[in-house]
Structure to design on (400 residues):
């Protein structure tokens, strides 16, 4: 790579105007390797790579390119990050059904054992979306069916040796009559879990079907139920993953956790300050944005490991504009930007997603994502990223 600026490219803005952008020529130096991350546990929720040659439709079972999908996990592990597998970043419930997720968990679990990579896997109830429950396709599942679905998935993850992440359940949100049902289901699951798990609180901005989780629309009341579950089983809760995009609420919750229970931030808007922490504690990380930011995030945490909080923030703060853009409302479509950046970065050969979700964001949105990512030096090969961006624009009728 020379020190010259790359050729300019014309990018569309939200008003349909085209303007020239000059990509950077030299990326950040973010080679794999380095000391293990020490001061924070950092898990990247990872996307799946679709098979672009599969003859399929958006409502058909996902066709996954397993080689490329597992190669991306090895990429994250090579930088010292852990992988949070089969989470919403992997399009659980938005293109990847339980059968596909189970296969992903088994394959990634085997890969983690072979490479020594840290892995935690999502346990949910998405097999109930088939309408196979006793109440019939038109009715909600029962609480007992929700509990049984969780148990089925729990067994699959535990068989791989991966840590369990108890995901928020659309089916439980539909079936539960109040906080007592959450206390019963989660208490049952925690009692039978072989090892401490991560509890997952995903806000409705990520999935509207999860509104009122923990039995109340009132977040203070919901937090009370959440903490009651943890307090009753502190030996079975490794930590909690909080994705409410509310830094103040996360800090308050973090300070109320029992000793030894970690808080894993899932806040893709405020992660630098939450990971850095304050005089009363800090958050670990389980983040979808660390899929595209993996190497940079690992470098930043290693800087924090040395006690250089200012250096950590200097590395990570400039990434927030990109993250806020990818996770802008409707937030659940952030996966499109994540996969788009993986394509531009050379981690996969195409921009195709399971369920056809590559169409979920506009061309101006993707163009801005490219500009923001290039601006912080995120692409290992800026020329490749520019050429792929130009090809996408050309398909859409833009003369770059």
């Amino acid at each position: 790579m020379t020190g010259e600026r790359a050729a300019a490219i014309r990018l569309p803005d939200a008003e349909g105007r085209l303007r020239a952008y000059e990509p950077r020529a030299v990326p950040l130096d973010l080679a794999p390797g380095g000391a293990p991350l020490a001061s924070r546990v950092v898990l990247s929720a990872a996307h799946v790579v679709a098979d672009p040659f599969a003859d399929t439709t958006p409502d058909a079972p996902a066709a996954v390119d397993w080689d490329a999908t597992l190669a991306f996990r090895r990429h994250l592990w090579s930088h010292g990050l852990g992988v949070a597998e089969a989470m919403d970043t992997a399009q659980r419930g938005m293109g990847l059904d339980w059968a596909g997720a189970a296969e992903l968990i088994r394959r990634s679990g085997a890969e983690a054992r072979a490479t020594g990579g840290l892995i935690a896997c999502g346990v949910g109830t998405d097999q109930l979306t088939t309408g196979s429950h006793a109440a019939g396709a038109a009715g909600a599942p029962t609480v007992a069916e929700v509990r049984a679905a969780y148990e089925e998935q729990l067994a699959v993850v535990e068989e791989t040796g991966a840590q369990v992440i108890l995901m928020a359940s659309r089916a439980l949100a539909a079936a539960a009559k109040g906080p007592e049902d959450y206390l019963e289901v989660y208490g049952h699951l925690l009692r039978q879990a072989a090892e401490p798990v991560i509890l997952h609180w995903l806000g409705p901005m990520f999935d509207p079907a999860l509104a009122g989780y923990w039995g109340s629309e009132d977040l203070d009341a919901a937090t009370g139920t959440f903490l009651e579950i943890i307090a009753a089983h502190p030996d079975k809760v490794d930590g909690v993953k909080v994705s409410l995009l509310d830094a103040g609420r996360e800090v308050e919750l973090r300070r109320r956790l029992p000793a030894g229970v970690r808080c894993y931030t899932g806040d893709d808007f405020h992660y630098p300050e939450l990971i850095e922490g304050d005089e009363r504690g800090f958050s670990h990380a389980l983040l979808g944005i660390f899929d595209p930011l993996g190497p940079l995030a690992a470098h930043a945490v290693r800087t924090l490991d040395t006690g250089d909080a200012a250096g950590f923030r200097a590395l990570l703060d400039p990434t927030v504009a990109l993250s806020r853009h990818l996770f802008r409302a409707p937030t659940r479509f952030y996966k499109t930007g994540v996969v788009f950046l993986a394509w531009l970065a050379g981690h996969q050969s195409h921009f195709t997603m399971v369920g056809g979700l590559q169409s979920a964001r506009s061309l101006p949105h993707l163009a801005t994502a490219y500009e923001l990512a290039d601006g912080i030096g995120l692409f290992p090969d800026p020329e490749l990223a520019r050429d792929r961006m130009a090809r996408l624009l050309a398909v859409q009728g833009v003369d770059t």
